[in-house]
Amino acid sequence: MDEEARAVAATEPPPLPYSLRTRKKSIAFFWTIFVIDTLGQPLILYWTLWYLTDLSHNLVFSIVTACLGGISVFEYFYRLYNLFRKDSRARPLNARKSWLDFFHINFTIVWLILAIELIVGTVPAEPYVRLVAMVLPTVMFYFGSVFLTLDILRACGYKAPFRISSTPKGSTMPTALYVLIEDVVAVDGGGGQIYRYALRTRYLSSPFFRRMLFQMNCFWAGGSILVAAAITAIVFTVSEPVAFTLGWTLPFAWAGLWTIITIPWVQSDLRREKEAWQDNRGQGGIPYTDDVNAPSARTRLEAFEDHLPSFIPWFREKQAPPSEPSN
């Protein structure tokens, strides 16, 4: 029985050899350090140095920005090492040694943007407090715009203009969340190329899985842009101390809320995907191909699709009726 026949005969989607449950401690440790470094540290330094010392405002913000993002800098060079080393098992599938994954390319670009933003904001004798408060909203604007653009292009039928991680040039534009999961788990989570291959197998084999990721990406990317716009309006409206505090705290509040919504949503859809495969409705369209119009069972979001605004047609891929069970 060849690979395609085995995929058709399978009663469950191709498995993903990675579990977050066995990594709870390391995940909790990383996010604790990240929150302290990115949220606690700038706020504590700002409020204590600004109001409890005689340091100049310029020096206060020089200290704040110099101490900012230590864990992110470490993560950046850790990823770079893992992707570039000679015996790397983390780089994208079939990619050259010199090829960075899509997440790292965007990681580099956003760091350059933030560096310019922080320099412009802290160089004057009287720093632009509101501009420094825009660091996290800027990240939200950037990744939200990039990721939403990829899925709009996907919905419009465009092909990948260059290699996007493990997706070759000229292939169907991948949904951005698939690329993000692939890159982060493979490199930062230690899943390596084994995970990249397994995730790609699942992604190409399951139209339901692709549809779920497409919708989830629209939820996160679209939400990040809208919330970043709201935070920007607040930052440039309220007093500077409040603006600085809210500019650094509201993005975390948004991310926490979106995560709380996402977890049961994804768990529900993964159950629906498994049920669809057991009914032999998990596959459709051209086998082992990223067919945007492939039929699949309805996702959780599509149960409410009649309530979705008609002016955002890219929020979901074209829906075709599920294929009939094979005999």
From TrEMBL:
Q: Which residues cross the membrane?
A: 27-47, 59-78, 99-119, 131-153, 218-239, 245-266
Q: What organism does the record attribute this protein to?
A: Aspergillus heteromorphus CBS 117.55
This protein's UniProt keywords: Membrane, Transmembrane, Transmembrane helix
Instruction: State whether keyword Transmembrane helix applies.
Output: yes
Task: Report what the protein is called.
Answer: Uncharacterized protein
Tagged with keyword Transmembrane helix: yes
